[in-house]
Design brief:
With 292 residues, the chain is of the alpha/beta class. 40% of the residues lie in helices and 18% in strands.
């Protein structure tokens, strides 16, 4: 009888211990699940700061004015500053060459990237994008005297294109058979002087950016090709894939800025009175067979 009672007591004790262990494991599991489900937005809120990757050399998206070498500005930069202000966050900018910006998201060195980054199908497979804050298209800078011998996009075959090796514009140039001369994190005048002196033949880039770069350096004998407007595009803030909470906050704020006129105001400030926040009215050629 006593043995039977001890056996029952041991069995009950084992059940209790198992139950306690199950609760502990469940609690631990819940904690792990809660920790793993913390989003980038949670981290940003906790830090009270959003870390933004940008180049600091891309006029007028992200640059240092000549009269103020210590204060970063530009269309993309000021949009991010306004977003951070409306979300009650501090903002910190980390500068990288164009080819290193997206990898800075991958490594966790930055939370988002804002540097006139175009939304494409290939990028959308690995990253999330905010609502677009800029609509544009591509144009081409060539030599002023002979348009670098280019009358159509097909004529850039075997020509030398200057620009970042991983950019959309370099992909367009390669699509038509151009050779690519890539650069580090250099300013616009380096690109333009190389076209002028014949080290390169063309630069494909954003219409607004190229227009303003030419205005800033009128002494250079280069020009925007008068007949070629192609590849309509959208620019947005880039973030890691699956960051739904962060995307929602960015989208809400950008939509507020669009509705109250802030995007138009900032665009007109940085793009010579033009509203890049709205789709262009010009007829722009779509490039067929180019998978971006």
């Amino acid at each position: 009888m006593r043995k039977w009672f001890l056996s029952i007591l041991i069995l009950l004790l084992a059940v209790v211990l198992m139950a306690c262990g199950s609760d502990d494991n469940e609690e631990s599991s819940n904690e792990d699940e809660e920790t793993s489900s913390n989003s980038k937005w949670d981290e940003i809120q906790e830090e009270g700061e959003i870390v933004v990757g940008t180049s600091g050399t891309l006029y007028p998206a992200s640059y240092y004015p000549e009269e103020s070498n210590d204060e970063l500005t530009g269309y993309d930069v000021e949009i991010i500053k306004e977003i951070a202000d409306r979300l009650d966050l501090e903002v910190s900018f980390e500068e990288y060459g164009v080819d290193g910006l997206l990898s800075a998201i991958d490594s966790g060195r930055v939370d988002v990237v804002a540097n006139d980054i175009e939304v494409t199908n290939a990028r959308d497979e690995n990253y999330d994008f905010s609502e677009p804050y800029k609509h544009s298209y591509a144009t081409m800078i060539v030599r002023e005297d002979d348009l670098s011998g280019i009358e159509s996009l097909e004529d850039i075959e075997e020509k030398v294109h200057g620009g970042g090796a991983t950019t959309i514009f370099a992909q367009i140039a390669e699509h038509y058979g151009a050779k690519i001369k890539s650069y580090g994190n250099v300013t616009n005048d380096v690109y333009l002087r190389d076209v002028e002196n014949g080290r390169t033949d063309l630069i494909i880039n954003d219409y607004f950016l190229q227009s303003l770069a030419l205005e800033a350096l009128p002494e250079l004998e280069v020009t925007q090709h008068p007949d070629l407007q192609f590849h309509p595009s959208e620019t947005a803030v880039v973030m890691g894939e699956g960051e739904d909470d962060l995307k929602e906050k960015l989208d809400e704020t950008l939509n507020e800025m669009r509705e109250d006129g802030t995007l138009t105001e900032l665009s007109e400030e940085f793009f010579g009175g033009k509203d890049a926040s709205e789709k262009p009215e010009e007829e722009v050629e779509e490039i067929e067979g180019l998978d971006l």
